[in-house]
Design brief:
- The protein is of the alpha+beta class.
- The chain has one domain (about 10-125): Nuclear Transport Factor 2, Chain: A, CATH 3.10.450.
- Helices cover about 25% and strands about 30% of the residues.
- The protein is built from 2 helices and 5 strands.
- The strands form 2 sheets. A 3-stranded antiparallel sheet has the order 3-4-5, with helices on one face.
- Strand 3 (about 95-105) and strand 4 (about 110-115) form a beta hairpin.
- The relative contact order is 0.15.
Length: about 130
């Protein structure tokens, strides 16, 4: 019989406005969050962090996407999917990463996908 993982509920600081619209001085943190909101924030931070680049994060935190820049789309698409899935599945709250969609926008590749978690589903996206 497969052993079920237990996920500890963790309250964390809530970052204010992850879309980049700052609300003024002192507005970076806005209380706390947990559950799906905390996971959404964790996914956002992971996608904005190149793995191994910032010493404030552990060596395994983030995703390796910079190495894909300038590579042919035939290589980038399956490799981005693999790297994103691998990075996100390190979090015990994430059950699956699926429904990848890729859209070429000039020299950029927009990637959107669904993150299935113990709290519910959330959409995420990143550009390469």
């Amino acid at each position: 019989m497969a052993e079920l993982k237990t996920v500890q509920e963790a309250r964390t600081w809530a970052l204010n406005d992850l879309d980049g619209e700052a609300g003024g001085a002192g507005s970076f943190l806005q209380g706390s969050c947990e559950g799906l909101a905390a996971l959404r924030q964790a996914v956002f931070l992971l996608l904005q962090t190149e793995r191994g680049r910032w010493p404030v994060f552990s060596a395994g935190f983030g995703v390796d996407l910079l190495g894909l820049v300038g590579q042919p789309a035939a290589y980038v698409i399956p490799e981005a999917e693999r790297r994103l899935r691998e990075a996100l599945l390190q979090d015990d709250r994430v059950l699956a990463v699926e429904e990848f969609r890729f859209a070429q926008q000039g020299r950029r590749l927009a990637v959107s996908f669904l993150v299935r978690s113990v709290y519910g589903d959330l959409q995420a996206e990143v550009e390469i």
